[in-house]
Amino acid sequence: VLTLNGKIRKAGDKIFASNGKKVDFASALGSCEEAGGTLATPMNEEENKAVLSIVKQYNQYAYLGIKEGETPSQFEYLNNMPLSYSKWHRYEPNGKGREKCVEMYTDGSWNDKKCNLYRLTVCEF
C-alpha cells in the first residue's frame, strides 16, 4: 500500500521517497528539509539498493546527501562526518575539488559531480 508506484521505499528504519522532480543540489536539499527529512544518504548496501530502486523507477541520476569536504577528494556526510559506506563508480571520485556533490548512477554506483546540474530529488526520513 505504501509503495506509491515505487516512489517510496523502506530500508531499516529509514524511508526514502521522491517527488519525481529534477533540480540542482541546493533545491533538492531544500525540498527534503522542507518535508522534514534530508537528501537520501545511503549508509549501507540495503539503503543504497532502496535509493537505487527509486533511481531506476525514474531512470534518472539522483543527488545524494554527501558532499566534498575541505580536502579535495575527501567526501563526507552533510553533517561533516566522514563516510562510513561508499559505492564509488570505478575511477571515481575524480573531480579533485571541482565536483563537490555526489550523484547515484542508474546502476547504484556513485560519481562526484558539480552541484548545479538537474538531478532527481530523493529524500530520506
From TrEMBL:
Where, subcellularly, is it found? Secreted
Query: Which InterPro entries has this protein been placed in?
Result: C-type_lectin-like (IPR001304), C-type_lectin-like/link_sf (IPR016186), C-type_lectin_CS (IPR018378), CLec_Tetranectin-domain (IPR051663), CTDL_fold (IPR016187)
Lineage per the UniProt record: Eukaryota, Metazoa, Chordata, Craniata, Vertebrata
GN (gene name): Sftpa1_0
> Which keywords does the record carry?
Disulfide bond, Lectin, Secreted, Signal
Q: What is its main location?
A: secreted
Residue ranges of domain C-type lectin in the record: 16-124
Q: Specify the protein name.
A: SFTPA protein
A Gene Ontology MF term for this entry? growth factor activity
| UniProt cross-references to Pfam families, sorted A to Z | Lectin_C (PF00059)
Q: Which PANTHER family match?
A: C-TYPE LECTIN DOMAIN FAMILY 11 MEMBER A, TETRANECTIN-RELATED
List GO terms (cellular component aspect).
Answer: extracellular space
Output the Gene3D superfamilies linked to this UniProt entry.
Mannose-Binding Protein A, subunit A
